[in-house]
Specification:
By secondary structure, the protein is an alpha/beta fold. Among the domains are: about 5-95, MurE/MurF, N-terminal domain (Udp-n-acetylmuramoylalanyl-d-glutamate--2,6- Diaminopimelate Ligase, Chain: A, domain 1); about 320-345. It is about 15% helix and about 30% strand. It is built from three helices and 40 strands. It starts with a strand and ends with a helix. About 30% of the residues are buried.
Length: about 350
């Protein structure tokens, strides 16, 4: 589809600077822009590309002030990144294939209840006493166990597995290969050095508007529920252990690992490969830098931490200056010790 800069500006409530009639039909990265495409500038690191990009239209912040002439037409908006996300969302909706109906090779148990407009692809399974809401998309090879619920408009991509008794909210997106409700890692040591498996009889509850990336695992609770609150966004390859609770609108990047019974607050941000040990409390609005290892509770709302074990982000950054200089500092200390020994020997 084609749009003029003027039409895009009206949709985004932005202001055109340049040719309002220029037409775009695709999107591009700013450093790889081509004529007829739309791009955006949100990260200052990419500012240099706005002067050379061949994209026809660029979304920029209202307060952006160019240092020299820009060949592209600009659309000034409050938040270029969010504006681009809105346009991509609109494009995605238009590109989506409308799927409905139950494929001949899908299996839905007679006791299952399914809402209007659902799609169930080949080799998908909906088990006994499970309830599926309206307009749910169940792609091929999805398995939904007994006594589960899936809310309206939720999308389950190929290969998603939902074990018995788990509950998925409305407007959720769960990407391919994710496992929800597998057993928590519970084993009791025995006197003969073997382990006795502790039955995991709880479930997983995922609230509305949650998105979960590919190949993530969310374990069922030993008792009660592992709970993912409303609006949480989880990346690929994340491990969430039994009885964990993640607060509203928290985001977690790839390869994070959360050990059992930890409680993470609202609006937290976890960088890639961050790990949190079990039975901790993490306050609201906490930021955990990538590859950090959190070994104690974080009680201060809005705290930012880094390192393994993690501590205050600002203090870590200051300490890192010394970490990098340790070989040099050690050499200086050894030289000073040698000098002191020589002075003592010459007395």
């Amino acid at each position: 589809m084609e749009f003029t800069a003027k039409a895009l500006a009206q949709f985004l409530k932005g202001e055109v600077e340049g040719d309002p009639e220029v037409v775009v039909s695709d999107v591009s990265k700013i450093e790889e822009g081509t004529p007829g495409t739309l791009t955006f500038l949100a990260n200052p690191k990419y500012t240099r590309f706005i002067y050379t990009t061949r994209a026809s239209v660029v979304l920029v912040d209202r307060h952006f002030r160019p240092e020299k002439k820009i060949p592209a037409t600009l659309i000034r908006v409050d938040n270029p990144y969010q504006a681009m996300a809105s346009l991509l969302e609109m494009a995605e909706e238009q590109m989506k294939q409308s799927r409905s109906g139950i494929h001949d090779l899908a299996y839905i148990h007679p006791s299952a209840i399914t809402g209007e407009g659902i799609y169930a692809g080949p080799f998908s399974v909906v088990s006994e006493n499970t309830r599926i809401g309206k307009n749910v998309q169940i792609f091929p090879h999805v398995y939904i166990g007994e006594n589960c619920t899936v809310g309206d408009n939720t999308v389950l991509y190929p290969g998603v597995k939902i074990y018995h008794g788990c509950h998925i909210g409305s407007n959720c997106i769960i990407h391919a290969g994710t496992i929800i409700g597998s057993d928590g890692f519970g084993f009791a040591p025995k006197s003969d050095s073997n382990y006795q498996k502790v039955p995991q009889i709880g479930n997983v509850v995922i609230e509305n508007d949650v998105e979960i990336g590919a190949n993530t695992a969310i374990d069922r609770a030993t008792m009660g529920s592992t709970r993912i609150r409303r609006g949480v966004k989880i990346d690929n390859l994340v491990q969430i252990a039994h009885n964990v609770e993640i607060g509203d609108n928290t985001v977690m990047a790839g390869q994070c690992g959360i050990a059992g019974s930890t409680r993470i607050g609202k609006n937290c941000m976890l960088g890639g490969q961050a790990g949190i040990v079990g039975h901790l409390q993490i306050a609201d609005h906490v930021k955990i830098a990538a590859q950090s290892g959190v070994t104690s509770s974080i009680q201060t709302e809005g705290e930012a931490v880094q390192g393994a074990p993690s501590f205050n982000f600002t203090k870590y950054q200051k300490s890192y200056v010394f970490f990098r200089k340790l070989p040099e500092l050690n050499a200086r200390i050894e030289a000073l010790e040698k000098e002191i020994r020589e002075l003592k020997n010459n007395r």
